[in-house]
């Protein structure tokens, strides 16, 4: 494993933990947290890590998969059950089915191998690239986001950017090239570009973040 993938994994884990701790410590989901994005991420991990029961790669790989799955469902539980009264469903109105259905169709049409596990893995890659859209849409509707929510988004964006560097590293040093993962990663990184700019120019200067409506 190269340093870029490790850094990407740790950034991803940090993002998830930051969000979980924010919800648990404040006993609230307020602050422009999209439950729909969290459901999509839980679906991403579920369909991607079905190989937990069929394929052992390494202790690190197995532990990280379990942590991602557990944290994803814990976040959904906190938003929709434990602290449901604080969830801002009125602004979390992005039609998630407009992402899931086209992505499912694309996974059937464009994949490495037409088998159930491979199609589900491909589906997870495509879905992850757009799963953040409900979150960004919610921030644009409310006009702002709590600082801790922006830290979560920044760490999530950094995870994706670091993984792109990881793919480049693997291409040059391991002769490994996965077009599906690279294209999806590029799409996801592009979606974060505007947020990165606002994060650097506003949040890091102590201002509250807002997205153009």
TrEMBL record:
<keyword id="KW-0813">Transport</keyword>
<keyword id="KW-0472">Membrane</keyword>
<comment type="similarity">
    <text>Belongs to the ERD2 family.</text>
</comment>
<keyword id="KW-0812">Transmembrane</keyword>
<keyword id="KW-0256">Endoplasmic reticulum</keyword>
<dbReference type="InterPro" id="IPR000133">
    <property type="entry name" value="ER_ret_rcpt"/>
</dbReference>
<feature type="transmembrane region" description="Helical">
    <location>
        <begin position="63"/>
        <end position="81"/>
    </location>
</feature>
<dbReference type="GO" id="GO:0015031">
    <property type="term" value="P:protein transport"/>
</dbReference>
<dbReference type="GO" id="GO:0030663">
    <property type="term" value="C:COPI-coated vesicle membrane"/>
</dbReference>
<keyword id="KW-0968">Cytoplasmic vesicle</keyword>
<keyword id="KW-1133">Transmembrane helix</keyword>
<dbReference type="Pfam" id="PF00810">
    <property type="entry name" value="ER_lumen_recept"/>
</dbReference>
<protein>
    <recommendedName>
        <fullName>ER lumen protein-retaining receptor</fullName>
    </recommendedName>
</protein>
<feature type="transmembrane region" description="Helical">
    <location>
        <begin position="152"/>
        <end position="173"/>
    </location>
</feature>
<feature type="transmembrane region" description="Helical">
    <location>
        <begin position="179"/>
        <end position="200"/>
    </location>
</feature>
<keyword id="KW-0675">Receptor</keyword>
<feature type="transmembrane region" description="Helical">
    <location>
        <begin position="93"/>
        <end position="114"/>
    </location>
</feature>
<dbReference type="GO" id="GO:0046923">
    <property type="term" value="F:ER retention sequence binding"/>
</dbReference>
<keyword id="KW-0931">ER-Golgi transport</keyword>
<keyword id="KW-0653">Protein transport</keyword>
<dbReference type="GO" id="GO:0016192">
    <property type="term" value="P:vesicle-mediated transport"/>
</dbReference>
<dbReference type="GO" id="GO:0006621">
    <property type="term" value="P:protein retention in ER lumen"/>
</dbReference>
<dbReference type="GO" id="GO:0005789">
    <property type="term" value="C:endoplasmic reticulum membrane"/>
</dbReference>
<feature type="transmembrane region" description="Helical">
    <location>
        <begin position="120"/>
        <end position="140"/>
    </location>
</feature>
